[in-house]
Amino acid sequence: MSRPTSLRQTYAHSAPSGWTFSDIPPHAGAGVPSSPPTAAVGQIPSTLTEPLDATGVLRGLVAAGLLQYGSTALAQPFEVGKVLLQVQWVPRGEVAEAVKPKVLELDEEEEVADEELEPEEDDYFRDPSIPPAAPRPRARDARGYLLRTSPADSATRPSWVIPVRTDGGVWGMIKAVARSSEGFTGLWKGTLTTCIYDLLSSTLQPLVLSFLTSTFLPHTPPQLSLLPLSALPNPTPHLLTHLISHTLTHLLLSPLDLARTRLIAQSTMHPHRKYSGPLDALRKIAREEGGWWSLWTHPNLLVPTLLDCTIRPGLQLATPLFLERKLRLSPDASPVAYALSELACSVTSLLITLPIETVRRRLQTQTRPSLRSASAPPYKTCVETRPMPYAGVVEAIYRIVTEETSPSRKEDEKEGRYEPGRWGGVRALYRGFGMGASASALVFVLGLVGGTDGAEGWTEI
Q1: Rounded to whole angstroms, what are the CA distances from 146 to 149, 156, 163, 267, 366?
Q2: Is 193 in contact with 83 (CB distance < 8 Å)?
Q3: How many CB atoms lie under 10 A from the CB of residue 19?
Q4: pLDDT, tens digit, 9 for 90 and up, residues 89-143
Q5: pTM of the predicted protein model
Q6: Long-range contact pairs involving 412-419 (C-beta distance under 8 Å, separation at least 24)
């Protein structure tokens, strides 16, 4: 038997099934079973040309919406407590007197009458048969109502305002809301608006990212778009496109976030309720505070939105890169060290972003009425807010640090004493820090128990 002169013939006869690179079936005499015909390049599979089931798609969308609404409703009481803590104004005693609204001056006749009612300097020589003079009457506004001089004054506190609460954190504010005139249902204010905001942001951000990638990184292979940033050979361009996509998405949806904050902070009592829903809030804010364009471009709204929506996602997106590229940690090789480092980065991120978020919430609750809306009903919050508006981000941080405080003891809060405490103003910038740190610790424990996927990274955006 003669051996073949070339190995090519042997390779052709021993080709395995399915390893053909053309649509032409193998030679019938080779004894090799033919592979099933494959679709030509560019030909659309028949499964994609079939008509879509509209009923199934609609059911899927409704189920996804209900699931999103349910998850939002579970977390909304904690979000309400956090927002109310951030916008609550707890001034020191001397600050409350200095920042109080302007008191109407009494006329000359009232001043003379008040002087006659003043008690004598020395009560020792007072005739006991003469009744003591009445105390000096308190200042009133034009309609005869008493003017408040301090948030600790419970006698003049409106019925729709929750008593000042500083201890207990978010959980303490949740209990205060449930026990106040807001009621138990007040813990779910803004649930629908929050759900809509989350759905729109999770839908628009991938679209914006895809547009930016196709525009500024057109030569990127499709396979790289599926990899995490830490696995890319050059992650800087992709990090910038991710960051810009998050910033643009949240900036575009910032009016909806403004309406959400206003709905959470307003009173739910019907006579004092200003907004009935997100659309009503956006319409009234645009009509009374400078038009629709001002919802995006007003400095007190634009600057804190850019800071919050750039720094927060930037820190969260850069954390996996820092851990794997700089610290040389791998979630597969050292999962415990990686999880501890991720927890430390999460807490550090809260220390940076929480003051910015607090200032943004306070500037969102400030109304900017124009001359055309002078007759519009005022916006009433369910917690104490600063009567004088903040001028901007820097001034708001300065006023919070220098004006506000917290009681050092529970007895002081029960008696309404809010004296200057050590680091009281700085602590006012970090209200809600305990809840955020506890959530990060819970994620850390669940990651250790159930395991983490290193490709997911930090997805809390």
Answers
A1: 9, 7, 18, 21, 23
A2: no
A3: 9
A4: 988 766 655 565 544 444 434 443 444 444 444 555 566 666 666 555 666 666 6
A5: 0.77
A6: 413/164, 413/165, 413/166, 413/167, 416/150, 416/152, 416/153, 416/154, 417/93, 417/152, 418/90, 418/91, 418/92, 418/93, 418/151, 418/152, 418/164, 419/92, 419/93
